[in-house]
Amino acid sequence: MATLKDIANEAGVSLATVSRVLNDDPTLNVKEETKHRILEIAEKLEYKTSSARRNQSGTVSLQHILAIYSYQQELEINDPYYLAIRHGIETQCEKLGIELTNCYLNNALPEVKKAVGVLIVGKPSTARREAALQLSENICFIDFHEPGGKFDSVDIDLVRISKEIVDFFIENGATRISYIGGEDEPGKADIRESVFTEYGRLKGVVSEKDIWRGDFSSASGYQLAKKMLARGDCPNALFVASDSIAIGVLRAIHEHGLAIPQDISLISINDIPTARFTFPPLSTVRIHSELMGSQGVNLVVERARDSRTLPLHVFVPSELKLRGTTR
């Protein structure tokens, strides 16, 4: 069965572009020849959406999952990490024959009958969380967890990852490490920043003046790095919260005339496909975000099937991929 990834690989475009073309997104700005190529490949591979398969078979799945995303869909364009989570959810639902409804931030929750469960991607607002509970008590968080909470979750161990990055820099001679990141809630540090700051201070390599926070975009990374470099007192190592931010940071460092990794080394998180093709290629922590999505579906289905009452909290493994931005 063909997937969106199969089409993207053959067409030489991103998953986001394929998804938006096949969903006839009117806001997509892409060449007509690219659209035509994607549609031709989809037809050749006999790709069908889950709704098309249901219409073709004349049956409707007896199971239904609602996926609630705690962000607007545009974020998937700027950061493929989130697109991969959705792709994992959709692929696993298709594999298991489960009907799926996606709902993004600022969209009203749909009426979903006979929902086997609800997936919540990212940290939800209190109102969103309560609304989800009205639909189902079988809830699984993805890319977020509550220590000791009663709901299932699939997440990454950002505490361990942040400490490992600090330790790696210290082992390789760094004496001063800076941080450039984003925020999920206005004015509040996320777990990466909090752990980095506390652990880095304990190790004597981090100070408050070296913490920079914006949003999770390349544009934000570029602007924050420019401000950092303009001070003329640069750290010799840099922890960047995501690859998307790091792409902007790399540009600012190049424009400032510094050499990477000789003058400043850099590690980010996610290992998006673009990370291997930056200059130099990004050293980054690979997060299996597609697996996070598929395992969230599995937990919801298993809990409903087995009437499990105890919550399960799953940490998906990560891997440090050393490339050209570290020595």
Low-confidence stretches: 54-61
Helical stretch tally? 12
SS elements, strand count: 12
Outline, from the CA principal axes?
Answer: globular
* Sequence of strands across the biggest β-sheet: 2-1-3-4-5-11
Q: Estimate what percentage of residues fall within beta strands.
A: 15-25%
How is the biggest beta sheet arranged? 6 strands, parallel
Radius of gyration, CA atoms, in whole angstroms:
21 Å
Overall mean pLDDT stands at 91
Distance, first to last CA: 42 Å
Structural class: alpha/beta
- The succession of helices and strands, N to C, reads HHHHEHHEEHEEHEHEHEHEEHEE
Residues in helix, %: 40-55%
In short:
Helices cover 43% and strands 18% of the residues. By secondary structure, it is α/β, with parallel strands linked by helices.
Overall description:
The protein has 327 residues and is of the alpha/beta class. Helices cover 43% and strands 18% of the residues. It is built from twelve helices and twelve strands. The strands form two sheets. Strands 2-1-3-4-5-11 form a six-stranded parallel β-sheet, sandwiched between helices. The chain has a six-stranded mixed β-sheet with strand order 7-6-8-9-10-12, sandwiched between helices. α1 crosses α2. The longest helix is centred in the C-terminal third of the chain and has 18 residues. The termini are far apart. The relative contact order is 0.13.
